[in-house]
Amino acid sequence: MFDLTIGAVVYCVLTAVVFLGLWLWYDRRDHRRFELERRKTTFHCIRCDALYSAPTGTELCRCPHCGHENGRLRF
After folding, report:
1. Residue 61: how many CA atoms within 13 Å on its side-chain side?
2. CA-to-CA distance for 51 and 40, rounded, in angstroms?
3. pLDDT (tens digit, 9 = 90+) per residue, 8-56?
4. Quick one: DSSP state of residue 60?
């Protein structure tokens, strides 16, 4: 029924599809998982002149050096 070359080609194509599917699935999973860690909001303390960051969505954050509450930087 099947020739040896046809079987080898089908096997290689199926193997490539499986690896491509796994690669895409893990890439999307890692992107979703680490997106929140990569995105940060930057703050500048007006009291001690320190720069620091906090997770996205934070409007006010206390300075880790002096404890003064600052608003986020807007560019």
Report:
1. 21
2. 12
3. 999 999 999 999 999 999 999 999 888 877 888 889 999 999 999 888 8
4. E
β-pair partners for 70: 61
Place of tokens 């880790």: 64
70/57 Cα distance (integer angstroms): 14
What radius of gyration, in Å, describes the C-alpha atoms of the chain?
25
User: How far is it, in rounded angstroms, from Cα 35 to Cα 2?
Assistant: 47
Residue 3, token pair as written in the block: 């020739």
Please give the single-letter amino acid code of residue 29.
Answer: R
Whole-prediction pTM: 0.53
Provide CB contacts within 8 A for 73, sequence distance 6+: 41, 42, 43, 44
